[in-house]
Design a protein that fits this description.
Blueprint (H helix, E strand, L loop, with lengths): L1 H21 L1 H19 L19 H4 L7 H21 L4 H19 L9 H18 L2 H14 L16 H17 L9 E3 L22 E3 L1
Antiparallel strand pairs: 1-2
Helix pairs in contact: 1-4, 2-4, 4-5, 4-6, 5-6, 5-8, 6-7, 6-8
Length: 230
């Protein structure tokens, strides 16, 4: 009994530590986004020219910088909560590959917008939001792991309305290209990293020919039952 309680406490401590580690990078990104917006307001700056301007050299820095630039506080607030929740989920459930997925989502989305966006300044972190939501959704089904599938369904339940943002004309003054291309980058990365990170448990069956093995008293021998390998 004591061993069982100890195991539960150890597991709880492990997941608590994992969660705390999972919020570090997302928190740093969000804080920096808010610092940029506050700085723009205090000093009456307009940093839109640090966004992405497609097919122009001046728009290349925006591939890295545009997620930090927002039109106003409302724009920033709309991106803050989904970006934070999705990135924390990424680092918690996909800790082994989270940094790579986040980095490549950032770069691929920005590069695709630079290549295929309209002739305008594209700013904001919404492309990153769509990329992470897309990765988390498709990755769970691709891996066929029930825990990750449950996360995929949760993403649909909470952020299902995001799908309308990938269509032109649905929302005014919104970079639907960032939304659509962010979603594409998420799908690409879900397929690319499908064999890395958490995997569905493998069922290991006993080698005996008998379908069931019983002891002398007619009870099933649990040592011969199928086991699961993580």
């Amino acid at each position: 009994m004591k061993d069982s309680v100890t195991d539960i406490k150890s597991e709880a401590a492990f997941y608590r530590k994992k969660f705390l580690l999972s919020i570090i990078i997302p928190s740093v990104i969000i804080i920096f986004m808010w610092l940029v917006r506050i700085t723009e307001t205090l000093f009456e700056l307009d940093l839109s020219n640090l966004g992405i301007y497609p097919l122009e050299i001046k728009g290349l820095p925006g591939i890295l910088l545009s997620p930090f630039i927002h039109e106003n506080f409302r724009h920033l607030l709309n991106n803050t909560l989904p970006l934070y929740m999705l990135s924390v989920a990424l680092f918690f459930f996909y800790s082994e590959i989270a940094l790579n997925v986040l980095s490549w989502t950032w770069i691929i989305t920005g590069l695709l917008v630079w290549l295929g966006g309209r002739e305008a300044w594209h700013i904001g972190a919404s492309g990153l939001v769509y990329g992470l939501a897309s990765f988390l959704f498709f990755s769970g089904f691709i891996r066929r792991y029930y825990r990750l599938v449950a996360l995929s369904l949760l993403i649909v339940f909470i952020y299902g309305q995001l799908v309308w943002g990938i269509f032109p004309g649905v929302y005014q003054n919104v970079s639907w290209e960032s939304h659509m291309l962010g979603s594409v980058s998420g799908i690409i990365l879900a397929v690319w990293y499908r064999k890395e990170g958490p995997q569905s448990p493998v069922i290991v069956w006993p080698e005996e020919e008998d379908e069931s093995v019983k002891d002398n008293n007619g009870n099933s021998d649990s040592s011969k039952m199928p086991t699961f390998e993580p």
